[in-house]
Amino acid sequence: MLPFLRGFRSLCTLAPLALLAGCSDASSFENDTGIISQKTESAGSTEATEAPTTAAPAVFTHPGVLVSRPQLDFVRGKVSAGAQPWANASSKMLADPLLSQSRAPKPRAIVECGPYSNPNYGCTDERQDALAAYGNALAWYITQDSRYANKAIAIMDAWSGIIQNHTNSNAPLQTGWAGASWARAAEIIRHTYGSWPAAGVNRFASMLRDVYLPKLINGSNSNGNWELTMMEAAVGISVFLEDRASYDRAVSIFRVRVPAYIYLTSDGALPKTKPGSGVDTREEIIRYWQNQSTFVDGLSQETCRDFTHTGYGLASISNFAETARHQGLDLHAEIKDRLRFALGFHAKYELGEAPPSWLCGGKLTRGIGPVLEVGFNALGNRLGITMPNTQKLVEQQRPAGTNVLFIGWETLTHAANPY
């Protein structure tokens, strides 16, 4: 087994944006309409503390990484009935080249990924193969056509028999991107399809345990979307492996990273920081938040970088909480205010509202991607929170496809899914 990366600190921390690879009044209320009060920083931040936690269930629920069996049954029923938006979402997924039955996996022993995947030795291939395995796993369950299950198995077996490591500066993030999709695919196939030989299952489990989890489980102190995606992958892998210790570790990191990624006025004058990140002083915090010094409910640490990377972080927050929910842990109750404000805040500007001059100097780089469906379903549908901007954007984006990194077909899996 590879050694755990204890004390890992990314070289990307506080680096110029070109080098990064993934790299208000407390009494105000905002219900996703964009009515937010402002607060300009003037004092030190309230720092979150990472406390030990016991969060893992006594018995893990399978399949239970992002999607559960009741959710999959709901989707299959809707697609079979030709109901929308699920039928269109299914057709779009089945037509995706990632699900082509002639597609050949491209495994490598060493996947090397530099900043912005440059160099790119197997990075795109790995991410796309992992997404292809997940898409085929979904297609198997929805259609009950064993060709899709066997294709997912062929892809997973190809990689588990070869890969040994991820290297270069983007290695932790690459491991998270691919690992998140691998865990989802493996959960569905292992627990709903009876023809994945035990030898293949065990070899794939060893791959996740020895090659992926050590790169992920101690997190990263780079931009927040890195660590959030890494924790999404770590918690999914922990469920597949039924590894209670790593599950608890992932939850512990998640609980301090989310408040350090999304600001609420209740945090104080400055955003919270993650212990050990090296972001402590007023100047460091403002620089880490892309030189933004006015903080409002729902602002993200990467809002002023661009909405695309912010979307990665918001997606992994939603996906992590969804996996935990399937395992009996209600993280949505803990993060619902941060997440609803963040979704509504970014949806408003993604829909075209002009930013004020205090926000990112009046300039935003939009392009949040197909990343809102899981969070909106959790908060807007299951919890009944009014989220008009988020709902409008989600419905405009349907049927959501993939971001070709780690997000895939979430209209299909989570649109109005009550389970």
UniProtKB/TrEMBL annotation:
The keyword Signal applies. It comes from the Bacteria. Residues 1-26 form the signal peptide. InterPro entries: Alginate_lyase_dom, Chondroitin_lyas. Residues 129-349 form the Alginate lyase domain. Keywords: Lyase, Signal. GO terms for molecular function: lyase activity. The keyword Endoplasmic reticulum does not apply. This is Alginate lyase family protein. It comes from Pendulispora albinea.
